[in-house]
Amino acid sequence: MKINRIKFKSTVGEASISGKRCLLMKPSTFMNLSGQAVTEAMRFYKIPPQKVIVLSDDISLDVGVIRIRRKGSDGGQNGLKNIIYLSGSDGFPRVKIGIGKKPHPDYDLKDWVLSRFSDKDQKLVADRLPDVKGAVELIVDGDIDKAMNLYN
Question: What pTM value is reported for the model?
Fold first, then answer.
């Protein structure tokens, strides 16, 4: 699998996940506008929201904690907010990965979200990536309940 083409305002690639052909996208828009990339691909391939899986960060979760949801609100995450707004649906599964709260209430949220992980936090997130992969495989396979039971 190579993610090496530019399409849908994203760097894209194709992969086989659980025997199904999947498009992987890393939007090249600002994160707050990632709905532009996602909905462009959804329209082109006629993909319903429930067949889209969004991976995102989440400041309300401790570093490395995974939270899988079948659908729901944006939870204050602006990229999810834009996807919901532009697609007209909150009915897409999402895998949220905790990055922790900002270190101080006065700290700028944008600076916190865009900052580098400490070595310790980077290891915590890296150690959870196999679980993220396992969760995505189960979701693609149609077993989101099992993914939530195993990884939430």
Answer: 0.88
